[in-house]
Write a structure and sequence with these properties.
Elements: H1 3-10, E1 16-24, E2 29-36, E3 41-42, E4 49-55, E5 60-67, E6 70-76, E7 79-83, E8 87-90, H2 104-116, H3 119-126, H4 130-145, E9 155-164, E10 168-175, E11 180-186, H5 190-200, H6 203-208, E12 211-214, H7 218-227, E13 232-235, H8 237-258, H9 261-267, H10 270-275, H11 283-294, H12 298-310, H13 319-334, H14 339-350, H15 352-355, H16 358-361, H17 366-381, H18 388-399
Parallel strand pairs: 2-6, 9-12, 12-13
Antiparallel strand pairs: 1-2, 3-4, 4-7, 5-6, 7-8, 9-10, 10-11
Length: 415
C-alpha cells in the first residue's frame, strides 16, 4: 500500500483522492493536495456536467477535522466550467459546501460536538477559536434550515420563555406529536404569534391543525381561535392546577395573617403539603390535613377538600360526565364562602369549553414543559446567550424539527 493510499484510508477520505502531502509549521499542520475522483466537473446549481474552461491558478484550502492533534487542510485548485443552464461557474466541490472554508466532515463534527457540550469545549477539540466556531455554527444551521418548511402539523403547543435579563421573552411553538420545536419568535403577545401563523403556515396547514394547547393568556387563545378554525383548543392542565393551588394558598395566607402565635405553629409547613398531589400524600399527611377541621381552621380544610375533589376531573373519560362534574363542583365551590376559590370558579366557567375536551384528547403542554427543561439546560450550559439568534441556533440544533447533522451527506458523517 502506498503512503498516499494509507493516508486516504486513515482519514476515511471519500469522494476525492490524495495527490501529495506536506507538513507545515514544524509538523503541526498536514496539508493534503487533493482532487475529485472523476475528471468531469459538475455545476454547483443543477448538478449537470459542463465543459472545463480553465483551472484557477490560486489554490483554495479547506480545514478538515484534526487528526492526532495535527491540523489537516485540503488544498485544491478548482476548475471553471461552462454550464448550459447557468453559464460560467466554478465546479462543485464534493467535500465542502459552496463558499465554505471548512469540509463537510468538519461541519458534522462541529454540529455533533456543540449538541453535546459547550462551544468552548468544542472549539478546543477542533483547535479553532470560539468566535470562529460560533460563526461557522450559525452559517451551517442557517444554511440547513433555509427553505425548510413545516410539514404534517396536527397538534401544536405554545409557550414563552425568558432568554435574557431585563424581561426579554421569546415565544416558542412546539409540535406536541413529534416533541420538537417548530418556531421561535422574539417577544410575546398577539403580534408575535400572529407572525408564525401568517408567515410560516399556509391556509391549508392551518386548517389541518386539529388540536392546540396553551396557557390561559388571552393573546395565545385569541390567535389560535382566529387562525386555526378547525382546532380544538385545550387549556394546559399545569396552568389550571397552578391557578387552583394559588387560590388555595391565598386562603392559607389569609388564615396565617389572622392566626395568633399558637395558631401559626399549627399552620407552619402546611403550604407544600397542600400543593402535594393526593396520590403522593401518606397517611400522616392526610391525618394532619383532616385535623385542621378539629383545630378550627375549617376554611383551609374546606379549600383542601375542594382542591382534591377537582383533581378527579382529570381522570374522567366522557365529556358529558365532565360537564356535569364541573357544574356540581362550581356550585359547591361558590357555597364555600372562600373568595379566592370563588374567583377560580369564574375562571373555570369562562374556560369550561376549553377544559372539557381534555377528557377525550388528553392533550397537555407536558411535552412542551419537558422541552423547556432541555432549553434551560442548553442555556445554563452556555451561561446564557447575548442574542436570541445564537440561542435559537442551539435550540434548533438540539430539539428542532429538522435533523441538522442529518443534512450532511452520509459519506461525510465521520469524525
Amino acid at each position: 500500500m502506498s503512503i498516499l493510499n494509507f493516508i486516504r484510508n486513515l482519514l476515511q477520505i471519500k469522494g476525492y483522492r490524495v495527490k501529495g502531502f506536506t507538513f507545515h509549521n514544524r509538523f503541526k499542520e498536514l496539508w493534503l493536495e487533493v482532487k475529485p475522483y472523476k475528471n468531469g466537473a459538475q455545476c454547483p446549481h443543477c448538478g449537470r456536467r459542463g465543459k472545463i474552461i480553465r483551472t484557477l491558478v490560486t489554490p483554495r484550502t479547506w480545514r478538515d477535522v484534526p487528526v492526532c492533534g495535527r491540523l489537516v487542510f485540503l488544498v485544491y485548485c478548482p476548475r471553471e466550467i461552462k454550464c448550459k443552464a447557468h453559464g460560467r461557474v466554478q465546479e462543485s466541490i464534493p467535500w465542502a459546501a459552496p463558499y465554505s472554508r471548512v469540509t463537510l466532515r468538519f461541519e458534522y463534527a462541529l454540529l455533533t460536538y456543540c449538541a453535546m457540550m459547550t462551544q468552548k469545549a468544542a472549539a478546543q477539540l477542533l483547535h479553532i477559536s470560539q468566535s470562529t466556531l460560533s460563526d461557522i455554527l450559525h452559517r451551517t444551521i442557517t444554511s440547513a434550515r433555509e427553505g425548510h418548511r413545516i410539514r404534517g402539523l396536527r397538534h401544536i403547543g405554545i409557550d414563552e420563555i425568558s432568554y435574557c435579563k431585563g424581561r426579554k421573552y421569546a415565544t416558542i411553538v412546539y409540535d406536541l406529536e413529534r416533541s420538537c420545536v417548530l418556531w421561535i419568535g422574539k417577544g410575546k403577545g398577539r403580534e408575535t404569534i400572529d407572525r408564525f401563523f401568517a408567515d410560516h403556515l399556509s391556509r391549508y396547514q392551518r386548517k389541518q391543525i386539529s388540536a392546540a394547547c396553551c396557557d390561559m393568556g388571552q393573546a395565545y387563545i385569541g390567535a389560535i381561535e382566529y387562525w386555526c378554525p378547525n382546532a380544538t383548543l385545550i387549556l394546559d392542565r399545569f396552568h389550571v392546577v397552578k391557578a387552583l393551588n394559588a387560590a388555595v394558598d391565598e386562603v392559607r395566607k389569609e388564615q396565617w395573617r389572622e392566626a395568633d402565635k399558637e395558631g401559626k405553629v399549627t399552620l407552619k409547613g402546611l403550604r407544600w403539603l397542600l400543593y402535594t398531589h393526593p396520590s403522593r400524600r401518606d397517611k400522616d399527611d392526610v391525618k394532619r390535613l383532616k385535623s385542621l377541621y378539629m383545630n378550627g381552621n375549617r376554611r383551609i380544610h374546606r379549600a383542601w377538600v375542594l382542591s382534591d375533589e377537582f383533581e378527579q376531573f382529570w381522570d374522567l373519560k366522557d365529556q358529558a360526565v365532565a360537564k356535569e362534574f364541573l357544574g356540581n363542583w362550581c356550585k359547591t365551590a361558590n357555597m364555600s364562602r372562600l373568595e379566592p376559590i370563588k374567583k377560580f370558579v369564574k375562571t373555570v366557567k369562562k374556560h369550561e369549553h376549553r377544559l372539557i375536551p381534555f377528557v377525550e384528547l388528553g392533550l397537555t403542554n407536558a411535552v412542551a414543559e419537558g422541552l423547556n427543561r432541555i432549553i434551560k439546560i442548553v442555556k445554563n450550559r452556555a451561561s446564557g446567550f447575548r442574542t436570541l439568534e445564537a440561542f435559537s441556533d442551539m435550540i434548533f440544533l438540539t430539539i428542532g424539527d429538522l435533523d441538522i447533522p442529518g443534512q450532511i451527506p452520509p459519506a461525510s458523517r465521520t469524525i
